[in-house]
Design a protein that fits this description.
The complex is a heterodimer of chains A (416) and B (233). Chain A has 416 residues and is an alpha+beta fold. Chain A has 16 helices and 12 strands. Chain A folds into 2 domains: 195 residues, no CATH class; 195 residues, no CATH class. Helix content of chain A is 56%, strand content 18%. In chain A, the strands form 2 sheets. Chain A has a 6-stranded mixed β-barrel. Chain B has a single domain, classed as P-loop containing nucleotide triphosphate hydrolases (Rossmann fold). Chain B has a 7-stranded mixed β-sheet, with helices on both faces. A 4-stranded antiparallel β-sheet of chain B has the order 2-1-4-5, with helices on one face. In chain B, α3 crosses α4 and α5 packs parallel to α6. The longest helix of chain B is centred in the C-terminal third of the chain and has 18 residues. Chain B is globular, with a radius of gyration of 17 Å. Classes of the chains: A alpha+beta (416), B alpha/beta (233). At the A-B interface, α1, α13, α14 and α16 of A face α2 and α3 of B.
Chain lengths: 416, 233
């Protein structure tokens, strides 16, 4: 029996080819643009998150506690009003104590790479110029496992640092400012008064000028000596095989080591919120295109209902139920939605493919970049599903109106 | 089953509103199986309104209606539609065919909706009905390619598709030329003779009415004359 309703619906639509085609194009183009734009937005988001994940530690264990420590007397009398004057904190060497034990624990977890790091401030005096530096003391053989700095080397390699404990890797901007080259020796001093001569074994270029000017990479032992913090690290850098486990694992690690463990999601919470907001705006705009297209369908089916009142009266007089009439007009929405998707999804695929092949240069860059495009079955499902629901939704009101028509009112109006 | 196929008692239809309008009232009728009945009367007298009530297209505001011994006042819209589908056939004055469907498809539709016959059987029956009415060669034509008389014969074929007990026709010859009108009248007459089917026709055409077994005259929504009960006003 369904085939009868479908057949009538199809005949109604084919009788208005031009209007049907325009409605169909509305849904098809809406679906295609939905796919194209969402692929671009999703692509740029994925690209951004990949950069974020690749270029920063997945989890950073810092030499601080998430909650400030409670004074022993406050712990002893938790319900008392405790007021203390002239509390003098104990002077202690900052840093993660027994970090080697923590590293052993971390390396025992599946899919985890971890390495200690000691960061501190230093000063490079060269040719009458002083440059403040951030010293990154790391175990050279671990650098490639927990950092992507190796990918940005433009001269020398991380391996050279492994072979030469008195080596230093500097950024391209620092090299440019001080006219330094690989093989030259520079002296770095720290606030402790310690200084040490280092041989430049590599130069990196990340493209971020401030990073390339201020960050240097050295052996952990040398930085510990410079900063006078023997056997201390102030950060443990953790990389995971699956970066999306970071949040759960950070909580687990923090519970074990007691120091604050920050996942990349927590560290980039503001950026991720912005991305989520951007997605809401994007999907709202693209959905609006489909809603406008749905109004086209509403218009066509409403017109058909108006024009086909006499036919509705005939069908009802034959014995068609009100719900049969409703189904006939709903089928029109379904047909328009299905055909719109059938045209729109391949068209959207073509648009995504074309966008993915576009190359362009960012201002000031010599590198050719490709448009980041990300497409998956979810986008197709959302685009197709939304277009289909919009088309069928647009048919609901006219279909209900058609079902409610009284044949006798139409027959009287027709002057029978 | 009694010989009465259609019976009404005190049937009335009143339109509510600021000024209520009575379309028909106090209609007492009994129509027998195989009877060919004409409902006549001046314009606006309530002939068509009575036909719509008899055809269950409209629901009475008073009185009762029995169709083959079944009282229908308690039926909901779906039940009424089911009765129309299986027991009633309609022919209207204008060309009331679905314009996008061929003559054959128009006749097939009620059978497809009823679902008793397969598509092949429905098509064969539709062709047979069209053939009986001299339209075999017009089966694949669209309504706009048919003459008025041919269209009305297709409408009759469609009305007969589900083998109804009663055919209700509202001015079936009203828009036809003399020759086509004669053919349609003849066909409707034959339905009662050969097939023991009841036909109720609303008409202005007194010649056509004269060919019927019984003429019921409606004036101001009431039965003015009905030979069956000898009523004369």
């Amino acid at each position: 029996m369904m085939s009868v309703f479908l057949n009538i619906a199809l005949h109604h639509l084919l009788a208005r080819k031009r209007q049907t085609l325009v409605s169909l194009l509305g849904i098809a183009l809406g679906t295609a643009f939905f796919l194209g734009i969402s692929a671009m937005m999703q692509g740029s988001e994925t690209d951004f998150i990949h950069r974020l994940i690749d270029n920063s530690p997945h989890i950073t264990i810092q030499d601080q506690y998430r909650n400030s420590q409670i004074q022993p007397i406050a712990r002893l009398y938790p319900d008392a009003v405790v007021q203390m004057h002239r509390v003098k904190p104990e002077t202690e060497t900052r840093g993660i104590r027994n970090y080697k034990q923590d590293i052993d624990y971390l390396l025992g977890l599946p899919g985890v790479q971890a390495s200690p790091m000691l960061q501190g401030q230093g000063l490079l005096s060269f040719a009458g110029k002083d440059e403040a530096l951030t010293l990154n003391g790391m175990i050279p053989k671990d650098i490639d496992q927990v950092s992507t700095i190796g990918q940005y080397m433009i001269d020398g390699s991380i391996k050279d640092l492994t072979e030469n404990p008195d080596g230093i890797i500097i950024g391209s901007e620092l090299a440019r400012v001080l006219s330094l080259e690989r093989g030259e020796t520079i002296t770095v001093s720290a606030a402790t008064g310690q200084s040490h001569a280092f041989k430049i074994v590599g130069i990196f270029h990340t493209g971020r000028a401030s990073f390339d000017e201020a960050q240097v990479f050295l052996s952990l032992k040398r930085v510990q000596a410079l900063l006078d913090r023997p056997n201390r690290a102030n950060t443990i850098v953790v990389k995971l095989d699956d970066p999306y486990r970071a949040q759960a694992l950070a909580a687990q690690i923090e519970a074990h080591v007691a120091y604050k463990a920050v996942s990349w999601q927590e560290a980039s919470e503001d950026i991720l919120s912005t991305l989520a907001l951007r997605n809401i705006i994007m999907y709202s705009v693209v959905s609006a295109v489909l809603v406008v297209a749905a109004f086209g369908i509403y218009n066509v089916i409403s017109t058909v209902v108006m024009e086909k009142q006499r036919d509705i009266a005939i069908l009802k007089s034959m014995g068609f139920h009100a719900r049969d009439i409703q189904q006939i007009f709903l089928f029109q929405g379904i047909l328009l939605g299905a055909c719109g998707c059938a045209v729109g999804l391949p068209l959207g695929t073509a648009i995504m493919y074309a966008l993915g092949r576009l190359t362009f240069k960012f201002p000031g860059s010599t590198q050719l970049n490709q448009m980041p495009i990300d497409w998956g079955w979810k986008q197709f499902a959302v685009a197709g599903g939304f277009a289909f629901v919009a088309a069928v939704g647009a048919a609901v009101l006219p279909a209900r109106k058609a079902a409610q028509l009284k044949p006798v009112d139409i027959l009287r109006g027709a002057g029978a | 089953m009694s010989d009465t196929v259609l019976k009404t008692e005190g049937l009335g239809r009143r339109l509510a509103g600021e000024i209520p309008v009575t379309l028909v009232q106090d209609i007492d009728l009994q129509i027998a199986r195989g009877e060919f009945v004409a409902i006549t009367g001046p314009s606006g007298s309530g002939k068509s309104s009575l036909l719509y009530l008899l055809g269950l297209l409209d629901q009475p505001t008073s009185g009762k209606l029995w169709l083959e011994d079944t009282e229908t006042s308690s039926f909901d819209e779906n039940e009424l539609a089911d009765v129309r589908l299986s027991k009633l056939g309609f022919v209207f004055q204008s060309n009331f065919l679905l314009p996008e469907f061929t003559a054959l498809e128009n006749v097939e539709l009620p059978m497809q909706r009823l679902g008793r016959l397969s598509n092949t059987e429905a098509k064969a029956r539709a062709l047979s009905l069209l053939g009986d009415l001299g339209l075999a060669s017009q089966a694949e034509k669209l309504p706009h390619q048919l003459s008025g008389g041919q269209s009305q014969r297709v409408a009759i074929a469609r009305a007969l598709a589900n083998d109804p007990a009663i055919v209700l026709a509202d001015e079936p010859t009203g828009n036809l030329d003399t020759a086509s009108s004669a053919i349609v009248r003849h066909i409707l007459r034959d339905l009662t003779k050969d097939r023991e089917r009841t036909v109720v026709v609303v008409t202005h055409d007194m010649d056509f009415a004269a060919e019927c077994d019984r003429q019921i005259r409606i004036v101001d929504g009431r039965i003015a004359t009905d030979p069956a009960d000898g009523r004369l006003t």
